[in-house]
Amino acid sequence: MTANLLEVEDLRVRFHLRTGIVEAVRGVSFQLGRERLGIVGESGSGKSQTGRAILGLTPPPGEVSAKRLTFDGIDLLKASRRTLRTLRGGRISMVMQDPKYSLNPVMTIGEQIIEAYQAHRKASRAEARDKTLAMLEAVKMRDPVRVFSLYPHEVSGGMGQRAMIAMMLVTDPDMLIADEPTSALDVTVQIEVLRILDELVTTRGMGLIFISHDLKLVSSFCDRVLVMYAGHVVEEIAASNLRDAQHPYTRGLLNCLPKLQDDVRPLPTLTRDPAWAL
């Protein structure tokens, strides 16, 4: 195992459209060890496209290029389809934003997790079932046996998100990409899901990329933060020092956060400089 799980240098994602070329990610570079790295920014800043590009999930007509994109020494751009299939879901997993669009509506929760486990591990049906129930318990499902037999429409949003986390972690991956995993959840469930992720990252020694638009959440949960704007990383800073960020875009995002103790009228808006996108 190399010191850095992931090394990204000059990552670019382009979409060739009839109206021209759109660059969604432009020159992103960072490294990830066994830590919690937050990526923040507004919608359209390139956060999710960065995560998808790492896993080779950029949809057509997208095009991904980089000077370096390696996971544990494996060149992800030159890797064969077979290698990528082995890595995806096996050593690298990704939790999508909304479980409604990620879970199969005609399969029970348990069957989906078993399928994910057996796709990457040689295991008997009984072993896969035991592993699935243990994973459902690890993500704090109150009654794992009952949840195992439920369909996605029979569980709440929070339970569905925890089921997705269980499915992505059942193979004991080395790295997890979580794309706004708490955005559709209420505050109490958010805290529970973050506690689960924190515990699993700590106990398993995984690397975590936590994609979010919630700066307060990232500052309290992650170790480092990348701030993205128009496909660029405009600032990298320790999460504990996010309040001391220097880039005007990061400062603008922080100033737009509502404050309960201040009645500001009108609400502040973010002033953008065209130079930030260059």
In short:
33% of the residues lie in helices and 24% in strands. The protein is an alpha/beta fold and 278 residues long.
Structure characterization notes:
This protein is α/β, with parallel strands linked by helices. It has 2 domains: 6-91 and 175-277, 3-Layer(aba) Sandwich (Rossmann fold), CATH 3.40.50.300; 105-172, no CATH class. 33% of the residues lie in helices and 24% in strands. α7 (187-204) links the parallel β8 and β9 (207-212). α3 (109-120) runs parallel beside α6, α4 (125-138) packs across α6 (157-169) and α6 (157-169) runs parallel beside α7. The longest helix has 18 residues, at 187-204. The chain is globular. It starts with 5 loop residues before the first strand and ends in a 23-residue tail after the last helix.
Write a concise keyword list for the protein shown above:
278 residues, alpha/beta, Rossmann fold, 2 domains, six-stranded mixed β-sheet, five-stranded antiparallel β-sheet
Give the number of DSSP strands. Answer: 11
- CATH domain class of the largest domain: Alpha Beta
* Largest sheet: number of strands, sense, barrel closure: 6 strands, mixed
Overall pLDDT metric = 89
Order of helices and strands: EEEHEEEHEHHHHEHEHEEH
CATH architecture of the largest domain: 3-Layer(aba) Sandwich
Weakly predicted, low-confidence segments:
none
Shape: globular
Q: Find the structural class using helix and strand composition.
A: alpha/beta
What is the domain total for the residues?
A: 2
Specify the number of helices. 9
CATH topology description of the largest domain: Rossmann fold
The spatial strand order of the largest sheet comes to: 7-8-9-3-10-11
Q: How far is the N terminus from the C terminus?
A: 36 Å
- Helix-residue proportion: 25-40%
DSSP strand content = 15-25%
Radius of gyration (CA) equals: 19 Å
Superfamily (CATH H level) name of the largest domain? P-loop containing nucleotide triphosphate hydrolases
